[in-house]
Design a protein that fits this description.
binds coenzyme A; seven-stranded mixed sheet; alpha+beta; 156 residues
Length: 156
């Protein structure tokens, strides 16, 4: 049987058929108090202001990203998840680049996100891609963890 990792990763728009796999990955990535519920993913899928992309290897979902934009305002990275067995292969980075590309097509000049201050892998990823810390939200999460707001200029 061919090595699973020899198959290329591709990124495409998410669809309703992906929701089961998305929810499974979300629950592997986040504790119950942080994980998004199914109806929130459904909302992000059907409302046009949001971009929702999935990364897949063959027919298996490896991760996803959601971002939102509002006319005249900064865009936001809402969430980014990579399946634990698929990490450290550049998938998270590729998903962020795909979303930034969609924001650039929509002439968005700046992207923001919030990330837990103890989430070292995500913090490193965003720093590597040029995001800078602009403020701290004290006790932002249900477990009292602080969050950083980070931002990046992406205008062409
Ligand atoms: C954060 C996350 C999306 C990274 O996905 P990934 O596909 O493993 O990331 P990549 O392989 O693209 O890594 C890109 C960079 O991120 C950083 N990074 C990723 N994993 C890391 C880890 N375990 N420790 C330290 N830095 C890490 C590194 O700087 C890496 O660059 P390098 O490979 O040149 O060192 C993934 O760990 C994840 O899904 N975590 C749980 C969900 C989450 O916290 N999402 C972020 C919400 S804000």
């Amino acid at each position: 049987m061919p090595d699973k990792r020899s198959q290329q990763i591709s990124i495409r728009d998410a669809g309703l058929e992906d929701l089961d796999a998305i929810l499974k990955i979300e629950n592997l990535c986040f504790s119950q108090d942080k994980a998004y519920p199914l109806n929130l993913f459904l909302y992000y899928l059907i409302i046009p202001e949001y971009h929702f992309f999935v990364a897949e290897r063959g027919k298996t979902l490896s991760g996803f990203i959601i971002g939102g934009e509002r006319e005249g305002a900064d865009a936001w990275i809402i969430t980014l998840d990579v399946h634990p067995s698929e990490r450290k292969q550049g998938i998270g980075e590729s998903l962020v680049y795909r979303l930034e590309g969609a924001f650039q097509e929509a002439r968005i000049g700046r992207v923001r996100l919030q990330v837990g201050v103890r989430n070292i892998s995500a913090l490193n990823l965003y720093k590597k891609l040029g995001y800078c810390r602009i403020s701290t939200l004290r006790a932002y999460y249900a477990n009292n963890e602080d969050a950083y707001i980070m931002s990046k200029l992406i205008g062409k």
